[in-house]
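Chapter summary example.
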Amino acid sequence: MFAAQNGLKGDPRLKGISEAIRVVPDFPKPGIMFQDITTLLLNHKAFQDTVDIFVDRYRDMGISVVAGVEARGFMFGPSIALAIGAKFVPLRKPRKLPGEVISETYVLEYGTDCLEMHVNAVEPGERALIIDDLVATGGTMSAAIRLLERAGAEVVECACVVGLPDIKGQCRLNGKPLYILVEPRGIDWRSMLGLSG
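The structure predicted for these 197 residues follows.
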């Protein structure tokens, strides 16, 4: 679900957030239109608006865990967690956490990757929100869901600042809701992906 579909359509904050995200052509490889949220972080108002929209949505949902996906989920997750009275749990790449971890491997377009979380960071029955900057195919987010569920958490929702509306990433999220603030700028995703309609 996009923020615009959740009663925020026409909200000037969404336009400001979208415009604050720099589009970098051909990064990290030719043909990619990279959605650079670091420029959003430099814009105090757009950054605050982004956090505020997420906080307004999750404040009364009984969430006790905000899990941030490395690395850009770390930029939004702690602020959201503090504002809603939840703990922040980093989901990291392999060999980045010093304690005992549980791991979840997932498939990428060319190869595999892995997310890890500290053992006992999440207690069984806790209600969790997963946050990242962008969702495309949903592979990383799906691995994050599996990792938290293996620890006994209930994943309430997944949230991203930017989402590709025509890629069915949410189909890989095991039925979990996906909340997205804005669509990417600078590219026609439908034609790039060969989608009609």
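To summarize the output: The beta strands are 22-25, 33-36, 65-69, 87-91, 101-108, 111-118, 127-135, 154-163, 178-182.
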